[in-house]
Structures are given as C-alpha cells and as structure tokens.
Amino acid sequence: MREPAVRTRELSVWYGQSQALHSVSITVPRGTVYAVLGPSGCGKSTLLRAINKLVLLREGARVEGLVEVLGVDVYRDHSAEEALSRVGMVFQTPNPFPHLSIYDNVAIGPRLRGMAKGRELDKLVRWALEKAALWDEVKDRLKSPASSLSGGQQQRLCIARALATMPELLLMDEPTANLDPVNAAKIEELIKELSREVTIILVTHDAEQAKRLASTGVLLFMGRVVSEGPISSILSRSYSSIIQSLVASARRQ
Amino acid sequence: MRGRSVKRRLVDYAVHLTTAASALAILGAASHILLSALVEGLPVLLRGASFLLNPPGPPGGEVGGVGPSLAGTLVTVAIATIASAALGIPAGVMLSEARGSLLARVAERAVELIAESPSIVVGLVVFTLLVVPMRTPSALAAAVSLSVVALPYVAAQVRESLAAIPLVYREAAFSLGLQKWKTVFLLLIPMNARGVATAILLGSMRALGETAPVLFTAGAAFQVFYGIDKPSSTLSLLIFFFAGTPYENWRRLAWGAVLLLVLLSMLLASLTRRLAGRVRM
User: Fold this and answer.
1) Among B86, B178, B189, B268, which is 20 to 30 Å from B200 by CA?
2) Model-level pTM?
3) What angle do CA A20, A35, A5 make, to 5 degrees?
4) Are B171 and A95 a contacting pair at CB < 8 A?
C-alpha cells in the first residue's frame, strides 16, 4: 500500500512563547480532498504551513514532532526539498507576483525549476490555465500584468501557478474566503475537478463547503485535534453546536 | 479657564515658531551651500570642455580644469559601486534571509562596525593592506577603501528592501518548491528590483562624496590620470588640496570642482529618490 500523502505525529508548533499546535497527529490519504476545519485562530493555517515548512518564514517559529510528506520526513530527511517540490499551495488572499505578467506568473515555477522551456513551456502554461478555468479569459492578454485581473481571476491564476509545477499534493488555505459567491462556486468546481488528479488539503471554516468537497478531514480547536475521520462523522451534529460546546468546555477548564 | 486657554495658545505658538525656525535654519544652510557653490563655481564650470577635460593650470597661472581628477572620480566610484554591490547584495540577502543565525548575527555586527568606523580609519587600514604592499597609492586602492565605506549602506538597503516584501508574496515564492537561493535571487530580488537598484545608487552616492578614505590611498596625481594601478586623484581630493592654497586660480578651480561634485551628487540623489519612490512593495 502507498504511504499516505501526509502523516504528522505529535506535531507541535510555537511562535515565540505561544504554542499554536499541540501534539497534532493526522493522516491524509492519497487521492482525497482532506478538510482541515475549525474556528478562526485554531491553528488550521499553521498546520498547513507546517506541512510545507512555510511556517519557518515567521519570526520565532519552532516545530517539533514528525511531518511526513509523500513518505519523506521533511524536517529531518535530506530529500525534503525534493518532496516539497511536489507540493503546491494556494493562499487565502490571491497573491500573484506583482512584477510579473499573467504568463510569467504561471511560467516562473517550471522555468526556474528547469521543467520546460520554449514551446514546451507555452504548452504547460496553457494546460495549467485551462485546468484553472482561466485560459479563455486571459488567452488574448497573457503579457498583461497579473494585477489587471479581478480578485476571482487572480485566485484562479494562483491555482494555475501552483498546478504548473505538477504537484502531487495541493495545499489550499481558505481559497474562497475572500471571493464573492459566484467566484467561490467556480473555485469549488475547480477543486472537485482537480481532486481526481491530486491530493488536496483544504483549510476551511465553512462546514458546508467541507461537506460538499471533502471526504475526510480533521476538526481542530485551540491547536488540538478534536476528531479526525470521515467528514460525515466529524460533522454528525451541526457545526455551530460543536463549536459552541467546545467553547463552553474550554471556558469551564 | 481663560488663563489656561491663553497659556495653551502661547505654548502652541512657541512650538510652532521653534519648529519653523529650525526648518528655516536648515533651509538657509542648504541654500547657502548651493548658492556659494553656484556663485563661486558656475563661472569656472561654464568654461565647459576645458574645465572638464584639462589638467589644473600652474600655481598662480591659468585656472585649467579637473580632467584627471574627474576621470579618477568616475573610475574609482565605478569600481567602488561594482565592488560594494557585489559584496553588499549577498550580504544584505544573508542579513535578511538567514536572520537569527549565528553567521547573520556576526555579519550584522561586522556591517555595523564598518558603518560606525570613522571613514579615515578605513582609509588607513586599506593603506596598510594595499598601498604598502603595492608600494604606491592608486585608483584601485582608493576604490577599495570607498567600496568598504559604501558596503554597509548597500547591505542595509538590500536587507530592508527584502524585508519590505509582504509575507503573502514571500510565502507564494517559497511555495513553488525551488531551492532557497533561487527563490531569493531569482524571485524575491527581481520582485523588489528597484529597492536593490536604490541600494546600489546609495552606495555610489556615498563613494562619490567621501574624502577621508581616499586621502591615504588615491595619491595626488592631479595633472594626469595614469590608470587604475597608478597614483590618481578624485574631485573631493582636489577640493581638499587646492582650496587651502594661496593661489587664486587653484581656489577658483576648487570651487568649480565643488559645484561639479554637488551636481553629480544631486543627480544620483534624484535618481535614487525616483527609484525609491517607485518601489512597489
């Protein structure tokens, strides 16, 4: 049996003195959409960033425990860089590179990694933009700055940028949080499409979105795992009643 | 109540007056520098090609020009700019990207130490390390001492321009799965290319204006520019040596050099401001 896409054991993360994750152990099976649920500030984004080590970009961040990505211990193994090169990420705020054109935003990853050049690169860019359902809207202005696109288009461009590096695992940090309902629905459709080919870890605080898109997931509260497993069992009660009872029990302690 | 209100207004006026007076004093000093340079230097500068290309005249004779010193200035500042950029950009990258590590902390202290050292000390150190073994002062030794003086400015500005890149773009860059050096040099630096260009210009401005580091290192070859490994001179050195002489023609030449130096500095400063103003981050 193939190893899971991601496995964490006793993962703890600190920002300076404050602990953001407490001994988090999760297993993300391959070929699924795995939802990371929880209220704001519960450590969802930190968990995602601990998986691809972006957490270390933050001042004073410290990580303990095991994080295995595609079978590689990314904090200890020498092959961590190679494993992480097979991981893409899409962020909550659309963040195309401001100094690059639409084309170059998608091409920059494969170009700098030496994956393709010339016509091959053109084909790859087109493929990624088509996958991200953006090609028809931008094919006539590929040289325009990425900042000329609308918010929803920018987010799809960021998805294309991540796809162009051919990831096996895609981390998505509330990718629809800053979008209007129409654009959010487009991104959701895209996630469904992509989930046939890549494993997706989707951070969301929207329980309905998790039900629509994910098969398994984890519920976090105050940096700890509350439950992990099929979404239907995590969300057996209404999400708001779960959160209310968690908040109430935290207050009692 | 009325007394308090009058007192408050009086204090208000006094503070206004003090700040306005200091602003005026600074403006007065700046105008005086510019006006003196213009009044004394413009007639010399307007001699045109003969001022820019010829060597100085003999003591008490023709005014002549600043040709060899201008050539020396351009060559030393160019070499110093290239050298300070070549060292300062990687140093700035390390200070920003490896901050907190032992090496970065040591480098940070070293950069601060150079920045805090009187520039004449830098000149003296380069004199012992380069001029003594070469047995001659040279444009190269002057350029080395100027590059050392400019280095902390370049490194600090590069560090700041990288630090100014918002975390959202930094995360996006690092999420592409590139090696760290590629992410920094091929993505983050081009993202704030204007910040880095500003750093290089700041370094060249600093090199252009310095006199103390070249006192021991450049030599005093005002008549001919012999080449980079031979004794040389710069505009600031010419001003230093000629302004204090009893010869009227040399003092006038020094004023011409003052105006030329002020104009070159203003040109670099305005370029720097234009670039810095357009920095996207």
Assistant:
1) B178
2) 0.81
3) 90
4) yes
